[in-house]
Predict the structure of UDP-glucuronate 4-epimerase.
Amino acid sequence: MPSLEDELFPSTPGKFKIDRGHNINRQFHRCFASTSTMFIWALFLIALTASYLSFQSFVDSGNRYFTASWGGIQWEKQIRNSAKTNRPGGMSVLVTGAAGFIGSHVSLALKKRGDGVVGLDNFNNYYDPSLKKARQSLLHSQAILVVEGDLNDVKLMAKLFDLVAFTHVMHLAAQAGVRYAMENPSSYVHSNIAGLVTLLETCKSANPQPAIVWASSSSVYGLNDKVPFSELDRTDQPASLYAATKKAGEEITHTYNHIYGLAITGLRFFTVYGPWGRPDMAYFSFTRNILQGKTITIYRGKNKADLARDFTYIDDIVKGCLGSLDTSGRSTGSGGKKRGPAPYRNFNLGNTTPVKVPTLVNILEKHLRVKAKRKIMEMPGNGDVPYTHANISLARREFGYKPTTDLQTGLKKFVRWYLSYYGYNRKDVW
Ligand SMILES: O=C(O)[C@H]1O[C@H](OP(=O)(O)OP(=O)(O)OC[C@H]2O[C@@H](n3ccc(=O)[nH]c3=O)[C@H](O)[C@@H]2O)[C@H](O)[C@@H](O)[C@H]1O
């Protein structure tokens, strides 16, 4: 019996046998019969294609339905509750990247003082999402809802602003990491450029427009060698794609401030560390490897110079974030129309005392009571800069920013958290 494919697409000449011994009538009949057969098959094919397409669209919409973890009356109610303020003059803040390191700490601090907080996070797997889920649970225990969704989801963003008249946005969602940018460059464009623009588009159209405070980075100083880094120093020599996307963010936010009257503050964070931190960062991965008896690689700069960072403790950063929100000023536009000039600011948030990376390892060894196996290596040309050092006088003047935690104290708190979260002997820590 011929297959359907054979019937529809005869490929061998012998398959259509022409019977020359039959009369014209019969030929006509056969011809008619074969035409009608083809017609029926064509109809069948069309019907098959149509049903395939509608099935496909059903599957797609089903996927959308099942993967979207937002929507529904109950969800809307939770959003409104989470955004409710609990103090006179309190803020309603949308915190993006709320299941991230800085985002979770800032969310808790805002809630604690009576502000309303709605979190947003895409829970991507740049590092172990279970740590992000654990932070989400922590926030949930304090009545903070973290919506699972992406900044680039225009409908979700619009929906959040439909439900809540956010007074402020604390935008901390980003693709972080300096060296990973060489492995996955498009993730930086997706989050740090496209995601930022989607957020700004949503904010500019909102009525009222929120004020925005967002995470820039010390990395914008790039190859700048004037220390300490001041906001007036040049930032046009980024050393990594990560830095370039943060610098681009500063330019993009300036545009939205200029055209739409959005009040915008960029915070240049200097290597932030602490409990619930990011496993991709050196202090965190060193801790894990030291405990597991693995060798750690310590990079070194030109002429065997040690690298140094202005490591900044999370609690100090949180104070800087809240201070920025409190002094952000107001956006002047509404519904996409500017009504007057609005503040545009950039601040360094650092610790002001750079520490060499080998010294960081010494401190970890002390707190962990384990000797590190060190391998010293020339810094690969992958976006790293030799040192960072913040001048914080501007932030001090504007909102009294004054870091109080040195690296010894901060790492002690980190190690205590690390051991309580992962345990001492576990090999499968992230
Ligand atoms: O301030 C910022 O704007 C950035 O801070 C952070 O970047 P960095 O300052 O590079 O921190 P981090 O990776 O902890 O490396 C610290 C030091 O350890 C060295 N380092 C690193 C890894 C390693 O295996 N060995 C090593 O010597 C390394 O060479 C470096 O000297 C954030 O990750 C980034 O998202 C961004 O926010």
In short: Confidence is low (pLDDT under 50) at residues 1-33, 51-67, 426-430. The first strand starts at residue 92 and ends at 96.
